[in-house]
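Table S2 (text version). Query chain:
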Amino acid sequence: MKITIHFVALIALLLLPQWGAAQPNGKVDSAVQQRLIQTVEETQRERKRLVARLDSMGGANALVKSQLESIQAEQAVGESALAQLRSAAALSQKELRQLKHLNDSLQRTLDSLCSVCGNLKKAQEQNSASVTGKIESTTAAVVANQQLVKKRTVMMAIVTVAIALALFAAILVFVVRMRKGASAVDRIKGAQESLQQAQTKMQEESIKLDNKLLELAEQQLSVANEGNRTVETSDHSLVVKLADEIARIETNLSKMDESVRGYKQLVQAKDRMINNVRANGYEIISLLGQEYNDGMQFPARFVPDDTLPEGKRVITGMIKMQVNYNGKMIQPAEIVVSQNI
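Corresponding structure-token output:
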């Protein structure tokens, strides 16, 4: 409406000279003419402002379009990062299940050790009065050892939580590196290294617990030998349980890298325990690594393995060791056979 008024004023200014010529004496009111001139100037200024505003709106539209394209690009990057984070979370869940399986295995080991301690207590009660003092002292030592094993179990739980936290931290580092623009190969390699470190840590803790288990078993075997000097017994349960633990340890060692810390010490402790029971007439026989044939009369569990040559069957796990006493078998072996048939 304002622009229309200015346009009318401009037309009036243009017609003013003709109108003035038609007036008496050819005179025009100077105040009206001055007002019309001001109106025209205001119209020009308003036009410039409108042009400037239109230019500003065009620049704003370009800026909004640029920001929209940037937001769309960031959304695509975020969706890619989310997919990779889900993959890393799946790997973490798998590792946690492996940790739970290891914890269950350690619990079964502890239960087996407690059962061995119970059998030892029964053997001590059968000894004569002349060795009662020694038995009581040994029982106190066994109780202390049980407390130590419980402490080790608590430590293992703490280590498990620490490993879980380390895995979580590794995932966070993985996500941060991904957001900083690291290449996909570097991110996958970093995740694999973190998982490998966690696996190595679990193997080291397992070796520590197995070493402690063999140490306690050696002490209990020594106590049992002291009792047998006075009272003759045909109970082989302690040696049989020890042989089962050695079967588990030897199978785990076959799947570990020799560079894992404590590996050689555990091998030496296992061999030393086998030699100790051999001195008492027992022989613990391992079939690990031997080729399997149909003439072996042992309970066996067969698992497929495509990495073996076709037709090959190899004993890759010991569930139970063969145990002989004075040349007579008191426990047959129970084995795991990998085959490609």
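Notes on Table S2: The chain has a mean pLDDT of 78. Strands lie at 282-285, 300-304, 313-320, 322-325, 328-331, 334-339.
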